Predict the structure.
Amino acid sequence: MRITSARVIVTCPGRNFVTLKIETDGGVYGIGDATLNGREMAVVAYLQDHVVPALIGKDARRIEDMWQFLYRGAYWRRGPVTMRAIAAVDMALWDIKAKVARMPLYDLLGGASRERVLVYGHANGGDIDETVEAVGRYIDMGYKAIRAQTGIPGVKLAYGVGRGDLHYEPADAALPTETSWNTPAYLDHAPKLFDALRDRYGFGPHLLHDVHHRLTPIEAARLGKSLEPHRMFWIEDATPAENQEAFRLIRQHTVTPLAVGEIFNTIWDARDLIQNQLIDYIRMTVVGAGGITHLRRIADFAAMYQVRTGCHGATDLSPVTMGAALHFDLWAPNFGIQEYMRHSDETDAVFPHAYWFEDGHLHPGDAHGHGVDIDEELAAKHPYRPASLPVARLEDGTMWNW
Ligand code: CS2
Ligand code: MG
């Protein structure tokens, strides 16, 4: 079964997505996601200039060899651009293999380990009262797990505080929007949000929170400690993880569970964190970490240390990634939770999919492959629009981590 064509499709149904469609001489095609939020065209160029020409005529069945060819064969290993291009090819080839086998992808991976996939949604508000109301709306929709973010008094545009409930998208302008940050104000305010949420809704719903790399390790330790009474499902990205050792310090001070990894690309980014049991959840997902082939290795490695998965699922990961991730989640023995920030109706129309939400869970559906397609005609009606993620500065103007 030879690859006859590979096309990169860029579309912007509300936000930008990069999709790879691989066709074979048998007539079966596969779809992969290559979206890198705010840097989409870098991956398009990498795919078109360096990957697509090497795919034509290759055997579509040899997924492992293709992965090794694209990873080792690039010489310049790793990085978000390269790994997203590899992920797109890998996802499309697994899609093809499962379609040819006439199986949903989770069956090909080894079969379902559970009936359905626990997901968490994003509730946010300008202040604590608004966030408490937003969490209530998620509970009413059936969610069992909810991430809560709130505005901080005196801080302009704090992370995660969106415009609109369901479709918050941070990449909001062609050039980066400037937001501000104040750590002392945040550390004071965050526990008050979770006091209010536990007061109102009790300990039934799982609560999650994203720190988005804003704290130093000792500040993260203090936050973790102050949130212990609220029994968080996790706090995420409490400090930047380039230095994986930093998490040792946080760990020494708190039993609040830690999640990390949405910006990692390979198993090497998480090796120390996992094997030293410095985290509880690994957040890499299919598009970010080189596809199903590599993510499966990460999950198996994590399982040895009782680290569970918590795949990134913001709206900048297209429905193709969501579909592929849900098959992976249904299989992964050490699955923890799946992020599910809903796509807009406009996006869903461009990417018809088999997955569905019910009672706080998603199911990938039983369509053959990963169950997500692209309507190319509709996609063409939504041309690319440059969009950047924001940046953050401290009050004195110092650049900070967004
Ligand atoms: C966030 C993301 O979903 C998350 O946990 O950290 O919204 C992140 O900001 C975006 O994916 C950036 O593209
Ligand atoms: Mg995050």
Q: What stands out?
A: The mean pLDDT is 96. The longest strand covers residues 3-11. The chain has two domains: 3-103, 108-367+390-400.
